[in-house]
Amino acid sequence: EMFFVRGQLNQLLAGLAGSLISLSAGLSLSWTSLVLRTWLHPDSPIPLTVAESSWVVSLSSFGALISIVPGGMLANVVGRKLPLLLCPFLEGVGWVFIILATRVEMLYIARLLQGISIGILYTVIPLYLGEIAAVNIRGLVGTLYFGATYAGVLIEYVFGVFLSPNNLLYFNLFLQIVAFFAFLRMPESPHYLMAKDRGAESIKALQWLRVGVSEDEIRNEAQIIDRNVETFKTSENFLKDIFSTRASLKALFIVINTAVVRTFSGSLTIVGYASYIFQVSGSSFLSPDGFAVVIGVIQFVGFLVSAPSVDRLGRRFLLTSSTLVCGLCHASFAVYLYLKTSTHLVVFTWIPPALLSIYYFFMALGVGSLLGVLKTELFPINTRSWAAIISSLFGASMDFFASKSYLLIAVGVGIHWNHVIYAVICFCGFLVYMIFLPETKGLTFEEVQIRLAKRIT
Question: Right CATH number for 240-456 from 2.170.120.20, 1.20.1250.20, 2.40.50.140, 1.10.340.30?
Answer without folding.
Answer: 1.20.1250.20
